[in-house]
Write a sequence for this structure.
């Protein structure tokens, strides 16, 4: 099996007195879908924001392709090939699909003038590669798209930049049945193209459909790492709600 | 992106429905209109209705003299409104444009006074534009750095600049009026092109449009991208050519094409290019549509805001100079009256959304034409100023309602 492309070793993060993450190990390999599950406040968002470089981890190491890296901001993460699709998608409703996919990274002819046709061609290619067939036109304004289509555009935007790791935050939370289907298919296809995909979700049904492995967090600690085919939803629910904690925060310091 | 695995590709061929024939294109356009993407449809329909109404009320409305007068009247409004369009694209507002334009006009006029200091006209105009642009810059700094809404900041500047105009006028004139002492500057809004030059520039504009469309067509087909069907391209080209050359022909029957139309045409082309073809323009639309998305995409949102308010100040100054040239003087009441409302109304009537992120530079021209067409028709009817305000207000209300309804339609069609 492939080596992990992204690996967190014993990362911790606290906000004031709150220990949001404590010595968490996390990894994802190319070509796999890794689900990150946990109850509210378990530390899922803290973990991905740390990976994205929104804030630094207090301790622990992040390894990318086996080498330790320091990610100081979203730009560093993009440079490595880590793209995050946040829950609100961050699309500009008034711009068309192409403009959104290239927002902030427009191709230009001489630094100022936008090279529309080459951008459009690249956008079409990316969407076709992901088999996104539900869009009528890449020149459609995003305001007129359905939730599933928007998610597809946001994902395609993340995939386009030679990214190697794509992290999806609750990609199906606001979607209906058919649209959830579209997005899950999309997630599967990304992994089939050898991308490493991390999916955060509360919906175990979705996770069991697409994920290869599952990391469960509880109260800031990684409690279990499952291989999806070997466990039932019941096991995962148990892990999320009553998984065995490896550390009791503060225990080490007091030497108990 | 890694290449898709081979067994993936055949089924991946997207069944996208890009319109390829004339009929299909019309159909997809009508679908867009129905889902709230109206484009210039309402304003063109509105303009036709206005012209039809006033034309039947008084046949002088269609006279060549009335047409050239309309162009002369609306040019300053359209010039200032270009800057307003940029500010509205960010969902901000600049209530200081009118008095900022007056500051530009007054400063230029003062600098041109013979021997006091009697600067050459290019220098006087450059200094005036620099001052109004700087005023826009200062406003933007307060808005972005202190986080105060632009409505309040520009309201304060509106009052303050009104004061500045009064102080300057009272300081340098006894009668409350200063005449412009330079023939070239007076010619900006009072000279007419010789017939030949009107035709040459008109044809050049049409040819330039045709050329840019042809280049676009070639690059798109060389990249294997779908193009608009020939019928549509021909219709658009023919329509524009007819409009421009028809206007030249009609103006030439009277005194010729007003020189100010060359100035306005240059500004419209330049700023349209900036808005629709440059990274900066794209980022303006992005910030107006979703500032948070723009910020996360690495766009410096504050920098965009500052530059846009500077554009607003620059175009206000340019419009102030055009207006001063038309009146051949500046006065204590420069920038007052209904100037502010007319320029903001022009941008909105032209189809620029108050909610930000949608609108085109050319809407400044279309809106100013509507306001000018209403005013000119009212003048022929000899109605008093009150009625004129009421009608202009109703047109503005209609424009805002259409904008709001279109937005609602778009939001509704998003969840189909």
């Amino acid at each position: 099996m492939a080596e992990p492309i992204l690996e967190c070793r014993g990362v911790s993060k606290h906000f004031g007195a709150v220990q949001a993450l404590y010595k968490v190990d996390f990894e994802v390999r190319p070509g796999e879908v890794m689900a990150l599950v946990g109850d509210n406040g378990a530390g899922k968002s803290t973990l991905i924001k740390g990976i994205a470089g929104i804030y630094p981890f207090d301790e622990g190491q992040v390894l990318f392709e086996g080498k330790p890296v320091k990610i100081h901001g979203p730009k560093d993460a993009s440079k490595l090939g880590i793209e995050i699709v946040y829950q609100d998608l961050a699309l500009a409703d008034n711009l068309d699909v192409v403009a959104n996919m290239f927002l902030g990274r427009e191709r230009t002819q001489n630094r100022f003038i936008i090279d529309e046709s080459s951008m459009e061609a690249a956008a079409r290619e990316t969407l076709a590669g992901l088999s996104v067939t539900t869009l009528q036109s890449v020149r459609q304004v995003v305001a007129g798209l359905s939730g599933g289509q928007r998610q597809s555009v946001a994902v395609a935007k993340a995939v386009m930049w030679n990214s190697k790791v794509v992290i999806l935050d609750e990609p199906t939370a606001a979607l209906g049945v058919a649209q959830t289907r579209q997005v899950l298919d999309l997630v599967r296809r990304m992994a089939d193209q050898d991308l490493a995909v991390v999916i955060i979700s509360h919906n175990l049904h979705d996770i069991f459909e697409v994920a290869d492995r599952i990391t469960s967090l509880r109260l800031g600690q990684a409690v279990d790492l499952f291989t999806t085919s070997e466990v039932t939803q019941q096991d995962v629910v148990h892990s999320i709600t009553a998984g065995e904690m490896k550390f009791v925060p503060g225990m080490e310091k007091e030497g108990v | 992106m890694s290449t898709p695995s081979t067994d993936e590709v055949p089924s991946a061929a997207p069944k996208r429905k890009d319109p390829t024939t004339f009929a299909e294109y019309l159909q997809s356009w009508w679908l867009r209109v129905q889902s709230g993407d109206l484009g210039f449809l309402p304003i063109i329909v509105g303009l036709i209705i206005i012209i039809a109404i006033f034309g039947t009320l008084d046949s002088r409305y269609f006279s060549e003299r009335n047409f050239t007068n309309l162009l002369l009247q609306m040019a300053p409004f359209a010039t200032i409104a270009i800057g307003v369009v940029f500010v509205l694209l960010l969902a901000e507002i600049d209530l200081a444009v009118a008095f900022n334009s007056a500051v530009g006009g007054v400063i230029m006029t003062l600098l041109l006074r013979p021997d006091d200091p009697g600067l050459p006209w290019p220098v006087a105009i450059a200094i005036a534009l620099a001052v109004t642009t700087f005023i826009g810059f200062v406003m933007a700094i307060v808005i972005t750095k202190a986080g105060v809404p632009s409505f309040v900041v520009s309201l304060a500047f509106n009052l303050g600049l009104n004061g500045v105009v009064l102080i300057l006028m009272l300081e340098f004139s006894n009668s409350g009026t200063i005449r412009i002492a330079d023939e070239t500057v007076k010619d900006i809004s009072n000279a007419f092109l010789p017939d030949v030059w009107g035709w040459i520039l008109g044809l050049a504009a049409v040819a330039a449009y045709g050329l840019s469309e042809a280049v676009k067509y070639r690059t798109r087909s060389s990249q294997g991208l779908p193009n608009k069907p020939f019928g549509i391209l021909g219709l658009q080209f023919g329509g524009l050519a007819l409009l421009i050359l028809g206007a030249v022909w009609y103006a030439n029957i009277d005194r010729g094409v007003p020189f100010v139309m060359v100035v306005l045409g240059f500004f419209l082309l330049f700023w349209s290019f900036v808005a629709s073809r440059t990274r900066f323009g794209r980022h303006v639309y992005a910030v107006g549509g979703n500032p948070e998305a723009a910020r996360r995409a690495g766009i410096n949102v504050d920098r965009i805001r500052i530059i846009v308010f500077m554009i607003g100040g620059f175009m206000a100054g340019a419009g102030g100079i055009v207006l001063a040239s038309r009146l051949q003087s500046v006065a204590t009441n420069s920038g007052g009256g209904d100037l502010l409302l007319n320029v903001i109304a022009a941008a909105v009537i032209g189809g620029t959304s108050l909610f930000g992120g949608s609108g085109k530079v050319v809407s400044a021209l279309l809106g100013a034409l509507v306001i000018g067409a209403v005013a000119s028709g009212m003048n022929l009817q000899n109605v008093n100023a009150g009625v004129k305000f009421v009608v202009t207000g109703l047109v503005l209300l209609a424009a805002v309602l259409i904008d709001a309804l279109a937005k609602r339609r778009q939001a509704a069609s998003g969840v189909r």
